Amino acid sequence: MNTIQIAPTYLLSMPGGSEWLIIILVVVILFGAKKIPELAKGLGKGMRDFKEAKDGFHNDIENGMKPKPEIEPKK
């Protein structure tokens, strides 16, 4: 029995010019031209929120790794 082996690079390749055109046409048909700016705005807001959360998480980790100042006992 023969099996077909597909190289991983074929599975992860980016769409070409005509494929992008078809994708854009399908999006316009499904959502309409008036909804596309709203979708783009929502996508941008989501990306911004994700970046802020990532940066906040990164800052929390860096602050947690810093040595804490020693507190001198009161006399």
TrEMBL record:
GO BP terms, alphabetized: protein transport by the Tat complex
InterPro entries in the cross-refs: TatA/B/E (IPR003369), TatA/E (IPR006312)
Organism classification: Bacteria, Pseudomonadati, Bacteroidota, Chitinophagia, Chitinophagales
General function of this protein: Part of the twin-arginine translocation (Tat) system that transports large folded proteins containing a characteristic twin-arginine motif in their signal peptide across membranes. TatA could form the protein-conducting channel of the Tat system.
Protein family: Belongs to the TatA/E family.
UniProt xrefs under Pfam families: TatA_B_E
Name the record gives this protein: Sec-independent protein translocase protein TatA
Membrane-traversing stretches: 20-37
Claim: Transmembrane is one of the keywords in the record: yes
Topological relation to the membrane, as annotated: Single-pass membrane protein
Subcellular location: Cell membrane
Quaternary data: Forms a complex with TatC.
Primary location: membrane
GO molecular function: protein transmembrane transporter activity
Keywords: Cell membrane, Membrane, Protein transport, Translocation, Transmembrane, Transmembrane helix, Transport
Any one GO cellular component localisation term in the record: TAT protein transport complex
